[in-house]
# Entry
Amino acid sequence: AKELKINLNISFLASEISKYKNSLLYPKEAKRKAELQDYQKAALVYEAYEENIIENNLVDFDDLLMLTYRILDENPDLRRETSNRYQYIMVDEYQDTNELQLKLLKYLASEHNNLCVVGDDDQSIYGWRGANIRNILEFDKSFSGAITIKLETNYRSTEPILKAANTLIEHNSSRLGKKLVSHKGEGPEVKLQHSLDETHEAKTIAREIKTLLSQGTHPDEIAVLYRINALSRSLEEGFTKEGLGFKLIGGMRFYERAEIKDIISYFRVLSNPNDDFSFLRIINKPKRGIGKASIGKLQKEAYVRQLPLYALLDQMTLKELEALVGKKVAGSLKKLLRDIALLQSEQENSLYNFVTFFEETIKLKAYYGNLVDGMDRVLNIDEFYGYFRDSIVKRPELTLEEFLNNITLQSEQDQVEGEMITILSIHAAKGLEFEHLFVIGMEEEFFPLLGDGCNLEEERRLGYVAITRAKRDLTLCYVDSRFYKGRRKMIDKSRFLGEAGLVKSASLKITKSSNYKKGDLVKHKIFGIGRVQAVNKAGKEYKLRINFGGNKKEILSSFVQSI
# Structure
C-alpha cells in the first residue's frame, strides 16, 4: 500500500482481499468490479499483494481454499481422483459456510454424493464475515436427492426457555422451520429485569449473582451476555465495586481497548503535557504522517536537550523543527500542539462542552470507523464519551484530573481471586451453555442493533442463540436509558421481548429493582429534578416519595432516572 501511495487502513485492505478470494475474484476482476474509490484502491493493493506472494512462493489462509478449488476446477481428472479418494464427507456448522466452501464441497462430493452436513439455520450469525445462509436453506437444490432429518429434541434448556426461543425465531421468514422440545421438561419462567440505566442494571445483576453464589452455585455456571462490546464497561465497573471476580471471554476489558487507551492518553497529555508515554501514543493518532524515523529524531533531540517531548516541540521554532524532521511533519506537529492548547483552554472553561469540542477536534471516531471492526470501536468511544458526560452531570465540580484518577482506579483494581463469573458477547457464546444466564441491553437500537446494513433476521437469530445458551435460569435485562452516540438517551425495550411472547404474558415474572435511597437526586420527564425522601415497596415495584423543589410527588421508580 505504501509503494502504491495508498493511505487505507491495513485491516480494511486485508479484509477486502479476503472477501475477493472467498468470492473467487482474481485481481483483474476485482479491479473491473470495484466502483467506489476505496474499493478501487483495495483492488490495486490486491493485485500488488498477489504478485508479491507469488514471487516469494507463499500462500495465505484464503489461498488454501481458493487454490484448491482452482486446481480441481481446471483439472477434471484430479477432481474425480480426489472425490473418489474421500468417499464420505461430513461437515459441521454448515450454516456458517461461504460461497467458495460450497463450490469446493460440490467438487469433493461430485463422484459419490456421500455427503452429510449438520447445521442450524436459526444459528447462522456470521453473515458479516461472509457466511451465506442460503447454503443451508437451499441445500436440497445444491445436492439433489438430499434427505433432511430434523433434530428437535433439546437436551440443554427447559421448556420455558425453548418456548421463548421458538416464539422469537418464528418471526423470521428465511428458515427451514423446526420447533425445539425440551428433554428436561418444565423449569423456572423466563424473567425480565427492568432497570433505570446501565449502572442500576449492573448493580442489580451483581447482587443477583451474589445471592446465587451464597446458595452454592458455582461461578462457572453463571454468565452475562451482551450484543455489543461497549456494554461491558458498566458490568466491569459494577462487578468490581461489588467485589465479584469476572473473566471477559473473546475480548479485552473496556479500558484496555486501543481506542479507549487513546482517549485516556489524550486526556493525560492535557492534564500533564510532560507525560512522554501518553504523548508518544497520541502523536500519530489519528494519522498525521509522523513516522518512526521522525519520532526517533525527536526523542534523540529531547534526550540531548534533557526535555520532555512536548516541551521540546513547544520550545523549537518551526524552522528548527523543519530542519530536523522535514516541512510536512513539522507542520503536523505544530498543529498538534495548537490543538492541545485549544483543548486545554476549553476544558478549563467548561468540562461538559469540552467533550464535544474534543470529539470534533481529534476525530478518533472517523479514524477508527474505517477499521474492519469499526462499528464496535465507535460504539466503545461513544460509551466512553457518554460515561464522561454523565459523570460531569452527576458532579458538576468534577475536574479532568479527578475523572482520570477514577478510571485509573477502576482499570487497575485487582481482580478478586478464585473462580470467576463469565462476561462475553453473544457471538463469543455460541456453542456454550450456562445454568444461570443474564442477557443485557434488550433495547431497540442495541438489540436488534439497528443501523446501516442491519440484517434484522440475523439479529433475531442472534437473539435465538442468546436465549438458548441458558440451561435453566434466564433473565433478559432492559433499561429506560442508556448512552447512545455519546449521550444519554431514553430508549424502548427490544421488540424481541414482545416477539418472544414475554412482554404480554400474564404469568411473566418481572424483576424491578430499586437502587434508590433517601437523599438521591432523580430526574422526571415532566417534574424535572428532585430529591428522594422515602422508598417504599409497591407490589413488584418501588414507590418513591420525591420533593421536586417544594412540589412533593409519589412516583414509581421506573418513571424516574438517577442523575
Observations:
- The chain has five domains: 10-64, 90-149, 161-245+418-512, 256-407, 521-562.
- The two ends are 49 Å apart (CA to CA).
- Residues 305 and 312 are 8 Å apart (CA to CA).
- Residues 505-510 have pLDDT under 50 and may be disordered.
